[in-house]
Write a structure and sequence with these properties.
Length: 540
Amino acid sequence: MKDPETPSEEALDFEETIAATVATSAAATSTTLEVAAANPLRDPRDKRLPRVAGPCVLVLFGVTGDLAKRKLLPAIYDLGNRGLLPPGFSLVGFARRDWKDQDFAQVTHDAVKAHARTPFREEVWKQLREGIHFVPGEFSDDGAFDALAMALKEIDETRGTGGNYAFYLSVPPKFFPVVVEQLKRTGVSQAPPGSWRRVVIEKPFGHDLKSAHELNEITTSAFPESSIFRIDHYLGKETVQNILALRFANNLYEPIWNRGYVDHVQITMAEDIGIGGRAGYYDGIGAARDVIQNHLLQLLALVAMEDPTSFDASALRREKEKVLKAVQLPSDLALNTARGQYDAGWQGGEKVVGYLQEDGISPDSTTETYAAIKLEIANRRWAGVPFYLRTGKRLGRRVTEVAVVFQRAPHLPFSKDDTEILGQNALVIRVQPDEGITVRFGSKVPGTAMEVRDVSMDFAYGESFLESSPEAYERLLLDVMIGDPPLFPHQREVELSWKILDPIEEFWATQGQPEGYPAGSWGPPSADAMMGDGRAWRRL
Ligand code: BG6
């Protein structure tokens, strides 16, 4: 058996830097921190009651993985720095390493220094350090989990954490069941009256509909549904939550947000990175299971759903479920989907190897690193409007966006020559980087002729707000500790998403090797071919 904690092979891994969301107003941040230091429980920018976590312990499985080092540990520090963690807050790491508390503290310290969003402050670190513990062990080792249960009891006594525990499974999916079973066996999954126990499961939740269902059976046998937090970190992104604000806090767009005006929608999540050290996780999973099943279908749901009656979890999830239920696959999957695998090529001035040459990938792997699909939504609002979803590794650049492309004006009272380079109106939600919203429309070119050309109107977060955006994981970790579920998909959403993807995966499984595309390009030719009807992918 492989070492479950080997980071290069199996640990969840985010190779992307967080630079884009870090770059914000330094002045605003430092002032905030000074005031926050005077009253660590209060963020002075927040005029509402602060959302602060109550006493609790966060137990992290998979602390040696890249996700923990790059995202989770820094996010915990950032929450502390913003005064959003309680004084007794404790962090327990669990891994197959011969470490003591101080070793894990050192790893946390290094991760914070390297990747935290907010500046390093010795007093914040000292407070966090006091609550850091480590329990060594394998996931199959009953003794290690008994030791974990003991450690949690002791922490409750010494730090006043009140029996409130969140267990974060940042481990490869194949270990989810064994860890959950252990938590059940030791009894730590059952909350005594007056306390809470929660489990946080990283995506992908299952491999297909059947396995997602099975995993859910195991998880719900240990934790009640209300204590299960299935993470989709895209929902923690400010720009993704802003889709709801854009649609439902304004009256400007909603009247045209339908088949009467929208020609099609394009949802793109392009990455320039390859699979790096994640062969063990990625091979056999591929682009569609890795991000379409979760991130991109969640984006589709937010863009296409009806307005919820409120923003509480059940109302929001109900609307997302309704729209996911209405999603229909095209009858001809060969024509309306595309899958590719990157070949060697050039990226950022460097020569990079192809997928099949990456460490740990078998030379005949058929795993796709690019996936594109066309979907339709069978309801009154969207009938006949195609939704195109695409994602890929080693593409031209890193960009995630949702583009709502509108129909052309029914009649142009200008000469053809004057409108030659006029495109379609579009509203583009720039999820990352360069977060914001762009509206594309036609405008008269200055001069004596009535020439019309596309121009852009732009909203950029950096220009409109002094506050920097919290990292997605800051928001989501805080929500877990507070027990606030709206930004976590329900099992029904997870299963509906697998229902959409499963037939495509089954079809692809019969198709042999995916089409090659050079690293640094925009994917395989079949992705362009599937657009049809005079439509084309946006050039990014
Ligand atoms: C993860 C995927 O969910 O999202 C990774 O497993 C991907 O393959 C990552 O690289 C991208 O996240 P972000 O926030 O950088 O877009």
